[in-house]
Amino acid sequence: MRHLSLTFQQFTVELGQFYEKSKTTGMVSVTMKRMTADRLKRAAKVKKVMPKGGETVVENPTSTDIQYPIIYRATYKKSKISTIVSPDEMEKFQHAYATVIRAYMDTLKKKERAKKVKKVTK
Question: Across the chain, what does the average pLDDT equal?
Fold first, then answer.
């Protein structure tokens, strides 16, 4: 199992590769989660560096006007990638992410629904 923590530019490139691979088999799952003060402290211990935008959250956890960093995770089969996007970089990330999603929109499958049978009334 491969798990990489990447910059958001690397994440979108790798995500595009996941979608390309999933055209033949498998599926890609993308999740996002807000990074709270506790999660940021754990991430800082593991990486030895506080994620960008995390200092203000850790210093003022009870403040109401804080913009939280967000962690994005993607999985394809047994490969996992993730990135932490700071509030300052969110707009750039959204544009890059939207570009990847639009590029691979053709691989989405329409939901199969059971056909309703009309009852014949006499």
Answer: 79
What pLDDT shows up at residue 92?
92
Residue with token string 């394809």? 76
For residue 3, the SS3 value is: strand
Length of the chain equals: 122
φ, ψ of residue 26 in degrees (nearest 5): 85, 180
Model pLDDT for residues 63-78, shown as the tens digit of each residue: 666 777 888 999 998 8
Q: Residue 19, class by beta-carbon neighbours within 10 Å (0-12 exposed, 13-18 middle, 19+ buried)?
A: buried
Euclidean distance between CA atoms 93 and 53, whole angstroms: 14
Q: From 17, 35, 5, select the one nearest 104 (Cα to Cα).
A: 17
- Centre a 10 Å sphere on the Cβ of residue 40 and count the other Cβ atoms it contains: 23
Structure tokens at 55: 């200092």
Instruction: Write down the pTM of the prediction.
Output: 0.72
